[in-house]
Amino acid sequence: MYVASQGNDTVPGTVSVIATASNAVIAQITVGLQPIAFGIFITPEVQSAPASGTSCNGVFNGTFMGDITVSAGQDCTFIDGGQVIGNVNVLPGGHFSGTGTKITKNVTISGPLTTWSMVRNTVGGNAQVQNIPDPPASPTNFMCGTTVNGDLQFQNNGTAVQIGSADPLICAGNTIGGNLQVNNNTSTVLIFDNVVGNDLQVGNNTGALDVVGNNVGGNLQCQGNSMLIMGGMNTAKQTQGQCN
What is the pTM of this model? Predict the structure, then answer.
């Protein structure tokens, strides 16, 4: 398998050659800044729903009735049309990805070596991402275009995250019905273009931090952050601290 990877101002783009039998990268070819892949792409087999709430390891687009627990080594992916009529709990070492997915209750994601992404999802309850200590070199997790009817908490993490989007043409910001709390994180946190029904609290983060373009129905509190890069164009009933 050949995978094209975009570069940046200092690192050129590459094409990685992967041996699919072992999933090992056997060669990496340096190319221009933005290689574009053309050809036939193989999509993963899509199943209707996991056999049980502890066997979510694959790609699904149907409805699962009950709670799902994603354990270490499992890669649980729900795509457009998928539904979980219950809670989703991602344990240390698990991976969860949802695109156009409806989760009727709560989402809890925690622990080392845990990765996740949520794009255009609906969460009926609260969402919590916490206690993931992985260093900044780990992949950036992201949530965009998602509605969380309750509270969203991203706290005590060492992984980078993008909550909302810097480019709404790709994926718009999130809608949080309750409070959005982003506290005590040590890696990069980007908070762009979200609509928050109640309060937005951003405190004591030590990594690079952007808080831009958020519409907050309650108070915006932004205090004790060590590396605030951008904090502006936000609207709120009252703004306190760094994010004016």
Answer: 0.81
